[in-house]
Amino acid sequence: MISRIKKIIIWADIDRATLFSVSARVWSVIAGPITFAIIGLGFTKDEQGYYMSFLSVVGYTVFVQFGLGRVIIQFSSHEWAHVGFDKNGGVVGDADAKSKLSSLARFAIKWFVIGGFFSAIALSVGGYLFFTFSKQPATPLAWQAPWLALCLLVGIDFLFYPLYYLLEGCGKTSFVYQFNFWRGLLGNFTIWTAIYLGAGLWTYPIFFLVNLPVILFFVVYKHRNFFVSLLFNEKSSKVFNWFQEILPMQWQTTIISICSYFMFQMFTQSSMYARGPARAGQTGMTWSMILMLGLLMSAFIAPKMPKFGMLIAHKKYKEFDNLFFKAYSIGAGTLIAGAISMIIGVFVLNTVPIKLFNYYSQRILPLLPTTIFLLAFFLWNLMVQLGLYLIAHKKMPHWWIIASATCFASISTWYFGGKYGLTGAGIGLIVVYIIHCPIMFFLWRRCRLEWHYKE
């Protein structure tokens, strides 16, 4: 049995980073229903609505990142092909590559320091206005103080983002995903404990507060030599030109990130604004579970992105293709299995005559819109994950396809959602993605032929 498992792991190219990535996603799928159950017992419907809306609105930090995270990983991985670590954890190797890495690190940290400050202010003001003018519950809730505390802590957490990206792009992929796995476990237990102890809307601020010392020790302190060697490396003429090298990919990444955010978070926010926290709670909880399933597919691809960049830097295109397509197919199959499991779970909650099941079925969307949204989300993932093949080359020619899909999806959601409800909105999404998926495939095929066989 053990030997068979080892053969499967070898066949699937599951290295240590991928193993922790998949483990983290599997844990999210396991922990999701537990969180769902605890929220159902610890929160009223209105509290659940505010809680899920908090998570949705905080996602606006994607605007402040301006796509720099993915850019850092891909650009640093291409340079890391020519450098390495010394015995103390510092960076050694080709002087030009190290110089470019240093310039990238300094630029990224400055960007995220300013972004963290801006995020805290913008979220505080924007979120306060959004929740104030949204439809209010019959019994008012004290959401103001938890929200402002959350915004402050999100701004502080934002400061550490470039450190993760630099570590991941520079050969520490295994550590990053292992750290995220254990931090995910700690985060879930923190949330469960906080809800159980009656923290209410303070739950999410407590989550960030508990994470802060963990990040400071395991990320900042443990890798201090790596960051010092980058930040205080002697400057040379070999530096990244933000305008010519980074910006072209950065603004395209931003468009895709914003589109991905609006594509699925708009349902929770529109429900909160138009129908109040109770409906937003149902929509937000359903989409949270669907998005967790989406992480299953990326779990097999995302950890390999730095390796993809190194293979492309050395022009090992055949090895890159084999590795990518295997991860892509395994991820898609895993996503399908997870979606089927979720459909069965929702069906059981809605049909089995048990009082507890009936109680929880009222906290999520019905079976039909859930199934339709799952299908739409699967089609969306096929496009977005295939786009990672192109991103690994430090190019994003597919940005306009994602933007087009988002625009048409927003229009169809507004029209069909207003006329036929969530079911109509979901069907509109499916039609839009069915049209755009072939366009994405043909673009990918053309780029692959040009980049790999015409050099």
What fraction strand? under 5%
Low-confidence stretches: none
Radius of gyration over all CA atoms, rounded: 22 Å
| Side-by-side strand order of the widest sheet | 1-2
Total of helices: 18
Helix content: over 70%
Strand count, sense and barrel status of the largest sheet are: 2 strands, antiparallel
User: Mean of the pLDDT scores?
Assistant: 82
| Shape annotation | globular
For the record, the count of structural domains works out to 1
In total, how many beta strands?
2
Spatial gap, N to C terminus: 46 Å
Topology order in helix (H) and strand (E) letters: HHHHHEEHHHHHHHHHHHHH
Class inferred from helices and paired strands: mainly alpha
Summarize the structure.
With 455 residues, the chain is mainly alpha-helical. It contains 18 helices and 2 strands.
